Amino acid sequence: MLDPVKKEYLENGGERFIVCAADQLELALDEFVDEYGEAPDVYVLSEVEKEVVGWKAPKTCRYSAEKPAYILL
């Protein structure tokens, strides 16, 4: 279940997140910590898309052309 604060953040157009394919999760974790200075919450992207009505996730992984599996917030 998505944290209510993070859900509201996405609903309001928040851009501080990374979506990635399963095989790129470690890279995404490292980049998130480097970029934002804190550890992210990691969610299964398909579950987040069900919870956040009207929000559209990027269609590809940040690091490859693969379909993303996770979102780091």
UniProtKB/TrEMBL annotation:
InterPro entries: YyzF. It comes from the Bacteria. Pfam families: YyzF (PF14116). This is CxxH/CxxC protein.
